[in-house]
Write a structure and sequence with these properties.
The complex is a heterodimer of chains A (358) and B (499). Chain A is α+β, with helices and mostly antiparallel strands. Among the domains of chain A are: 63-130 and 156-187; 205-350, 3-layer Sandwich (Rieske Iron-sulfur Protein), CATH 2.102.10.10. Chain A contains 5 helices and 14 strands. The longest helix of chain A is centred in the N-terminal third of the chain and has 27 residues, at 2-28. Helix content of chain B is 59%, strand content 5%. Chain B is built from 17 helices and 8 strands. The relative contact order of chain B is 0.11. Among the domains of chain B are: 1-33, no CATH class; 41-307, Cytochrome Bc1 Complex, Chain C, CATH 1.20.810; 443-487, no CATH class. Chain B has helices at residues 8-23, 26-34, 44-64, 90-100, 105-132, 141-163, 168-182, 188-196, 206-236, 256-281, 287-290, 309-317, 334-360, 376-395, 398-405, 409-441, 472-476; strands at residues 36-37, 73-75, 87-89, 250-255, 323-325, 328-331, 453-455, 464-466. Chain B is mainly alpha-helical and 499 residues long. In chain B, a hairpin with an 8-residue loop joins strand 7 and strand 8. In chain B, helix 12 packs across helix 14 and helix 14 (376-395) runs antiparallel to helix 16 (409-441). Classes of the chains: A alpha+beta (358), B mainly alpha (499). The interface between A and B is large, with 98 and 115 residues. The complex binds FE2/S2 (inorganic) cluster. FE2/S2 (inorganic) cluster binds next to loops of chain A.
């Protein structure tokens, strides 16, 4: 059915193209059989304005042509009826299945396409074809600016304290505008929450289904997403990346000694560039990167961070390293935060707390 | 009552009389029916934008009847098996139900999405036509500014539209938008937290806010601007290309009634047809495959809708430069690609009519458009600038190139950080040469090629070369092939182009 529709559209396009060609050649010389061509000039309403303007007359573009084309008229009627048919088909499909998007689209789109075809054929081969000339008129009357200003300033006639009134109006306008806009302040902004994350010493790590992580769950070569136990997982400060590296590989800054017990590292999962979740991990090697350190990559703009070096940026647009969270393994083997973040997570702004050192 | 007059002619007159007694629109109606549209295909692109907007409004009203702007998370137990048991927001849930369970819902949603993409494409193409033919010159500079404003609003509108869905892609987009808002120097933090009602992902009011902006505020402004845009066109009349009998003070073409009205109606239906066919037959944004958004989720290889691509490209291309003073982050890194880049692009476009007036000293009124080749420098600047933006747009997809062809991503980005400044210069230079060549030889790159392609025996190893056969169009149009110095044909016009 769709194929038939397409074939029809193509056939129509070809026919229309040929019709246009024919008309063009009619214009170039000779009359089309069956077309009554009235030579331009007398018929056009705008023609009076165009009287006798020098050399352009030799190539006067005006023309008016009554196509009198019964075949095109039949075609238009046929197209319109076919459009109605497809519209009914659309209703039928809608009632019967309703959920067959392809069929619905083909029926309704086909119906609209047929109406389009009918209108275009009618516009090009059924109704009067006319090329007319319309004068633009002028936009700027030479006198107008002075006249308008004169008319406007008539308002000040006989007013002696014009300055005073103007000033008072300005003051009132400014005050009322401010008053009208003031309630916007209740929208916010509330920047108080922006430095807070749910992480502080002792908070346990859960997976996205709420199961607690134990140290042995974190295996070398994989990436785990952790959330703070009992907190809102949707907060920008909540999600963590947890991974384990052989301890010999770690080159953490000296101030972070003890942040990665048994090589278990935790970072904010929110990219400090533009807040996407950092979810790509290459370990232990990357075939075509040249750099074979384990690396975390954000899929949004490919900022790449080195977990072994405390989240340092290797490549990409992020302006800060990936914030690291100190990890604690409690006596029962559960993973907990050994403290909060000592920098802000998420994107940067004026007051963002950057890491003290990297 | 006496015998009713059933003559259709007099019936029609009665209806018109009823109307005229109350409105008295004769002059206006007559003027509208005789309003002349120049016949050139490139003038239809703006109409395509207008008609896509109409499709957007109609489909959008339908969608708004089903959309729920809720951030409330709940567990899905609906008809789509693969997502059962998933946590998702009420917003995502409502669009999922609309797509999978409401008869014709997916058709309307996909048509709406396609219409947005086509709307923006048509605006951009229309602006390219206006730019390269000089149609933005006085008195149409005002309409250029309005059109540019509509482009900016349409980009925001489209972005909000797919952000409302709260699927994984739209959530990632919102995260980037939030961060970009944060990166505005000094006020960014306040601004982003004002819009999102707190830190990302925002409060429960977020989608209600975005919805009212998307379905009411921006469409209302767009409608107003479109009205002004069109009213201004009617007042000034269309510009036109030079040709026989065409002068600065007249317009030559098809009168509105009846031929042009029918053709334009045909275009309206054609646009609607294409959009509905796309919406029905070609899948777009299958949100059930992306799944719901959660702050802790992201997906590799994500690409936004095309009109956001240039911003993603810029964000990806920029190095991690930041400006710090003491402990304060004056300029965070997303600022360059997400804020400065679009500001520069729109700034240049807004400033262009004024800049050109300053440089050329041409302050005259112009109603005759120019062929791109006849203004080689403008055309070269235009293609250079355009290719700069397009290149950055393409760079936004370098990850696709990496996945498909295994060209290392980092090498691509490092290459383009320099290449993006050189390639547009080359393209501008080539354009300049091509324009000058076309001016000299007077070939029409499209229509002049009605001739035959002949094998030129004198060239080495039988290379193909084109032989220019003057076409009908060339012969009938003495205005073609003027050099920049020649005055236009026909009587000189005191307000005409400055030589
Ligand atoms: S959001 Fe991570 S690189 Fe931009």
């Amino acid at each position: 059915m769709i194929a038939r529709l397409l074939a029809r559209i193509v056939a129509f396009a070809v026919a229309a193209r040929m019709a246009m060609r024919r008309r063009d050649s009619d214009l170039a010389g000779g009359e089309a059989p069956g077309a009554k061509a009235e030579v331009s000039g007398a018929a056009s309403e705008a023609s009076g304005a165009e009287a006798g303007s020098g050399p352009a007359d030799a190539e006067d573009p005006r023309r008016r042509e009554v196509p009198a084309n019964p075949r095109a008229e039949t075609l238009v009627a046929g197209l319109l009826l076919a459009a109605a048919l497809l519209a009914v088909a659309f209703i039928a499909v809608f009632v019967v299945t309703g959920l067959d998007t392809q069929l619905l689209g083909a029926a309704l789109g086909g119906s609209l396409a047929l109406i389009a075809a009918a209108a275009i054929v009618a516009g090009k081969s059924v109704v009067v074809q006319e090329t007319a000339i319309e004068e633009r008129g002028t936009l700027l009357e030479p006198e107008a600016p002075a006249r308008i200003v004169d008319a406007l300033s008539e308002a000040g006639e006989g007013v002696s304290r014009r300055g005073l009134i103007t000033c008072a109006a300005c003051v009132a306008g400014a005050a009322v505008t401010t008053a009208a806009v003031a309630p916007i302040a209740s929208i916010g902004p509330r920047l108080t929450a922006i430095h807070k994350t749910p992480w502080h010493r002792g908070v346990r790590f859960t997976d996205i289904d709420g199961r607690l992580y134990r140290a042995e769950d974190i295996t070398v070569g994989s990436l785990f997403t952790a959330l703070p136990e009992g907190a809102d997982p949707e907060l920008i400060g909540s999600p963590l990346i947890v991974l384990r590296l052989p301890e010999a590989m770690l080159h953490l800054p000296s101030s972070r000694r003890g942040w990665a017990p048994h090589g278990i590292l935790a970072f904010s999962k929110i990219c400090p560039h533009a807040a996407c979740a950092v979810s790509l991990y290459r370990y232990p090697e990357f075939p075509s990167g040249g750099n074979d350190q384990p690396a975390l990559t954000c899929p949004c703009h490919y900022s790449t961070f080195l977990p072994a070096e405390g989240g340092k940026l290797l490549f990409g647009p992020a302006g800060r390293p990936l914030p690291q969270l100190p990890v604690l393994i409690d006596p029962n083997g559960y993973l907990r935060a050994a403290g909060g973040f000592d920098e802000d997570v998420g994107p940067s702004w004026l007051d963002v707390r950057r890491p003290s050192q990297t | 009552m006496s015998v009713r007059d059933l003559n259709p002619r007099r019936q029609a007159e009665r209806v018109v009389r009823w109307n005229e007694e109350r409105i008295g629109a004769y002059q206006g109606i007559r003027g509208a029916m005789r309003y002349v549209f120049p016949d050139h295909w490139s003038f239809l692109v703006g109409e395509i934008a207008l008609y896509s907007f109409i499709v957007l409004i109609i489909t959008g009203v339908y969608l708004a009847l089903f959309y729920v702007p809720s951030t409330q998370q709940s567990v899905y137990h609906g008809s789509y098996v693969l997502l059962q048991g998933e946590q998702m927001s009420g917003a995502y849930r409502s669009v999922l139900d609309l797509s999978l369970d409401v008869p014709a819902g997916l058709l309307v949603r996909q048509t709406h999405h396609w219409a947005a993409d086509v709307f923006l494409a048509a605006i951009v193409l229309h602006m390219m036509r206006v730019f390269f033919t000089g149609a933005y010159r006085k008195p149409r500079d005002l309409n250029w500014y309005i059109g540019l404003t509509m482009l900016g609003l349409a980009i925001i509108e489209g972005f909000l539209g797919y952000s409302l869905v709260d699927d994984l892609l739209s959530g990632m987009g919102l995260a980037i938008a939030y961060s970009t808002a944060m990166s505005v120097p000094f006020i960014g933090g306040q601004f982003a937290n004002l819009v999102w009602d707190g830190p990302f992902p925002g409060s429960s009011r977020l989608f209600a806010r975005f919805e009212i902006i998307h379905v009411f505020i921006i469409p209302a402004i767009l409608t107003l601007l479109i009205t002004v845009h069109l009213a201004m066109i009617v007042r000034q009349h269309h510009s036109q290309f030079p040709g026989p009998g065409r002068r600065e003070q007249n317009v030559v073409g098809t009168p509105m009634w009846p031929a042009y009205a029918l053709r334009s109606l045909g275009l309206l239906f054609a646009v609607a047809a294409v959009l509905v066919l796309l919406g029905g037959l070609i899948q777009i944004n299958p949100i059930w495959q992306w799944g719901p958004y959660h702050t802790y989720l992201s997906e590799n290889g994500a690409q936004p809708d095309w009109y956001i691509g240039w911003l993603i490209g810029a964000l990806r291309l920029m190095p991690n430069w930041e400006v710090h003073i003491g402990g304060a982050t004056i300029i965070p890194s997303p600022f360059w690609g997400g804020v400065l880049f679009p500001t520069v692009v729109f700034g240049v476009l807004y400033a262009w009519p004024w800049l050109e007036r300053r440089i050329t000293g041409d302050r005259a009124i112009h109603h005759l458009d120019e062929r791109p080749r006849d203004r080689p420098i403008r055309t070269a600047i235009g293609t250079g600038f355009l290719s700069w933006v397009v290149l950055i747009f393409i760079i936004g997809a370098s990850d696709r190139l990496f996945f498909r062809l295994d060209i290392p991503y980092t090498s691509q980005i490092r290459f383009w950080r320099i290449g993006v400044w050189i390639v547009p210069l080359l393209i501008g230079g080539v354009t300049l040469m091509v324009c000058r060549h076309l001016q000299r030889t007077d070939t029409h790159p499209l229509r002049g090629w009605e001739g035959t392609i002949v094998e030129a025996p004198e060239t080495i190893d039988g290379a193909w070369s084109g032989q220019h056969v003057p076409s009908r169009v060339d012969a009938a149009t003495p205005g073609r092939g003027r050099s920049e110095e020649d005055p236009p044909p026909g009587p000189a016009d005191e307000r005409g182009r400055t030589p």
